[in-house]
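Record 1 of the preview.
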Amino acid sequence: MARWWDALLGRTDPVRPDLDALFALPSAAVSLEAAADLAPTGVGSVCFRPAEGGAFGALERDVVQLLAAGGGPPVEESKDSYGYSWLLVRRAPDQVGDLVTDLHAVNSSLEGAGFGPSLLCSLVSFAGRDGRRLALVYLYKRGTFYPFAPLPGDRRDGALELQVRGALEGELRIEPDLGRWFPLWGAPGL
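->
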């Protein structure tokens, strides 16, 4: 009966995040380089709302140690002006697959420990020889990607974002609601 009311009132179930969608990024990176002359920088990050309590702090330390123990580079931790935590991972630009595996491990660890609702987004950075910058952003709660191309002065390169959307629509699940293409000013790694 409740499903019937939900359908009648236009309510839908929230989209379940599919962290495995991150593994489509290496292929998308090749397409992005061909279509927009943007190459991976080897930098990615995960943003989450820190939870209170020792269990979350211990989990965050464990994730950082896990990535370092796996032969990866040290993970950089930071907080932004809104109080969100960021874990920044660096790899060689040609190691997009390893970078995505690291980001997936961070997300999966937080989700597996019950902190999935705290996850906000993950991003992988790209740059052009002409100085253009771009991030492919994965919205955890929507299960979608969107491009974010910052310009100096807290402006966006909307034309580039739309070009990237067109180039990657068949490879990534692109967020259809442009109002959810949130600017990530000052995001670590961008």
